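Marked as duplicate of an earlier ticket. Keeping the data here for the record.
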Amino acid sequence: MLHQNLIDGEWVVGEAVPNINPSDTNEVVGEYALASKADAETAIAAAKAALPAWSRSGLLERQGILRKAADEILARKEELGTLLAREEGKTLAEGIGETVRAAQIFDFFAGEALRLSGETVPSVRPGIGVEMTREAVGVVGIITPWNFPIAIPAWKIAPALCHGNTLVFKPAELVPGCAWAIVDILHRAGLPKGVLNLVMGKGSVVGQAILDSRDVSAITFTGSVSTGKRVAAACAEHMRKVQLEMGGKNPLVVLDDADLDIAVDCAVNGAFFATGQRCTASSRLVVTEGIHDRFVNAVTEKLKSLVIDNALKQGTHIGPVVDQNQLDQDEKYLAVGRDEGATLAFGGERLNRETPGFYLQPALFTDTKPDMRINREEIFGPVASVIRVKDYEEAIAVANDTPFGLSSGICTTSLKHATHFKRNAEAGMVMVNLPTAGVDFHVPFGGRKGSSYGPREQGRYAAEFYTTVKAAYTQA
């Protein structure tokens, strides 16, 4: 079956491209159509034409469609979770978990559609009233990455539709399957034609067409820092709203007084699960002297017990890296770490399994310095480094010494240090005795510095991006 693009309510044929399973490169997950520049331009025009009616649609209509989508995603969680695992490489358990989260996001915004509100205040001038309302921002371009192929599209599409926007959605080339499934579900749930348009294809073609269009009012992007900067520049040229979620180099601070078992679980889960391919991954483990050796030994033993294998295989803890390019990048940084003088305490080897895939043993560096490239640049793989520090004061200074600021964590039993860290960690999200990766769907997601730009995602904070505020004055 050729999975086609959805443009103006119709499925449109394009050049077929195979979607390869990273756990078994002999398997084709499916054939997906590539959109052209002309397809993208037609999709934008369709979204623009659909905007007046959808932005003024009834709340129950929006709520009903979002709720239908939530119900179907949840009912098909095993099927969709399996698809996710096959095309991205997450374990089946992780794939199902991400699918459930997508359903929860759609369910949340179905409820939000019935809670849309404004504000009425008296004017400073007698006899005049003022109403503040939120309206759809317009045609929204959505560009998503490959590492969360169903959750990230969900947390962009759901609030955009909830607030009455029309959409042109370009998923990452590596993971068209989950994107197509979500769009198909929403299409069958009753979205009017042109409200949601799917244009699968190359960023240089489809993504660029979205960036170049004067009819796109806002762009929400999750991906690399380098691409994010180009998106921001294009949006500045057109004076459009932009929301960027980019990289991370997240610290997990482990203090001498930490519960060792909790600290190890936080580090291993945060740094290596989902193959370390999370912008919130704990790639820097900042550990004080008194617990350092015990912590490193315990993490190493834990890593030895993990099963790295086919994502669909029962008992697998960590699946493959997403593709050859990412594997090459991971191995490049392993070489960089060695060249910089870090000690590869564990892992970093290519692995052969029953099925051919991009398998990499989780890697742990020790004897690293904060200024090493492996501690400054995002690797985006199952690679973490340990930085030994003297005390809490040095630990928080090292934790904040990064151009990124997405997530930051601390393991400690000290209320004093936990309280200080929550206030002084230079990150958008702070975790205490929890992995840096793992957030709730109903609260804001986003960071500081080079990690994020623009309004937060998720929860009620999503309204800041997907709406524009109007103040209307009336004299009785």
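See parent ticket for discussion. The chain has 14 helices and 23 strands.
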